[in-house]
């Protein structure tokens, strides 16, 4: 029996993880669940999965959850605040930690699980984008087993030899191609994108996901973050990483080897497949996902991405090539710009403009240790919340 901690249990990846776990109660038990403020949903999940621990980041939500759990007679211990996240991520009894918090907030708890040497199922790509070198070094030092859950990276991982683990050197690989659905605005011209609404941006054609990653998919920033993620996981230089649009989202990514063989992983666009593969690897589990029927699947299409209409992909590639602290700058600026867009404070076209302004303002920012990375992240956010991200000159240096 393996004990599983689900960080970000109430989100899209968290809910899919609990769905897979519930199909295999003979093999997994839920040790801890965490959420930001949605105590109603976490309560429901606690009633179903009966974890030993539940963490709510918001203190008042934690109090409400605790009272409701007591009424229900459940012995689940409730922790509050961000410290609780790191505590459950590194519990001695934990075998597997699903890192499914969205954004930079996932960095510290994910790193806590890595430091504690767990099998870490990584959905939270922003953690790796912010401080990839430090993150991968910590994986090597702690002996943690890092398995990618992002569908593209999980696909790449499945195309590699079974004994391979992220962080190890790859041999015989010529290039890696990430597929991208292209999001809801594939084929649109730049002008037409200026006035799209958050509702339109969150209507993903093939995947059902949280709102932040849905907007990232619509701007193609998601694919840019994934390029950086792939670079760190598989140790591949930027010039060997490619992106191709594939609107059906059936081929999840491909690896080209030195002899020009290309191995791809195919499947339904359903996160339960990569989640189940990470939970059981190198064994296989029923994920509850329909079989893929090649006949009814029909034709598969591939096309080049449009970096003019979707500048976020180009900006991420620039940050990846620049290296140092620039991916962290890109990530922080993007998180603020997407939150502004979702809250109606900015337009869709403002996202790449704000990110580009931040990359210019913080040009040359060096990579640092954890403390420096968190300070840089905070500085970029403060700059975005001030004047800089909205088109005015930045006043102080990075
Ligand atoms: P989501 O918005 O649906 O859920 C996010 C979860 O994180 C929730 O449980 C929420 O309570 C928690 N959370 C939010 N802010 C927090 C904070 N400040 N502190 C602690 N917890 C917080 O997001 P999602 O779509 O499930 O995505 C989660 C992560 O997985 C993201 O990094 C995303 O890029 C990645 N990912 C998601 C998918 C997908 O299909 N949804 C696919 C690949 C990768
Ligand atoms: Mg992905």
Report on the structure:
This protein folds into three domains: 2-149, Rossmann fold (3-Layer(aba) Sandwich), CATH 3.40.50; 159-280, no CATH class; 323-387, Rna Polymerase Sigma Factor, Chain: A, CATH 1.10.1740. The protein has helices at 12-22, 39-49, 59-71, 82-89, 107-115, 125-130, 132-142, 151-159, 190-193, 198-201, 211-219, 221-234, 272-280, 294-297, 311-322, 326-342, 350-361, 370-385, and strands spanning 2-7, 28-35, 53-56, 77-80, 96-99, 119-122, 145-148, 173-180, 241-245, 251-257, 262-266. By secondary structure, it is α/β, with parallel strands linked by helices. The strands form two sheets. The protein has a seven-stranded parallel sheet, with helices on both faces. Strands 9-8-10-11 form a four-stranded mixed sheet, with helices on one face. The model is unreliable at 391-398 (pLDDT under 50). The chain binds nicotinamide-adenine-dinucleotide and magnesium ion. Nicotinamide-adenine-dinucleotide binds at residues 8-14, 35-36, 38, 57, 100-102, 105, 123-126, 150, 207, 209-210, 212-213, 271.
Quick structural gist:
The chain has 18 helices and 11 strands. With 398 residues, the protein is α/β, with parallel strands linked by helices. It has 3 domains: 2-149, NAD(P)-binding Rossmann-like Domain (Rossmann fold); 159-280, no CATH class; 323-387, RNA polymerase sigma factor, region 2, helix turn helix motif (Rna Polymerase Sigma Factor, Chain: A), CATH 1.10.1740.10.
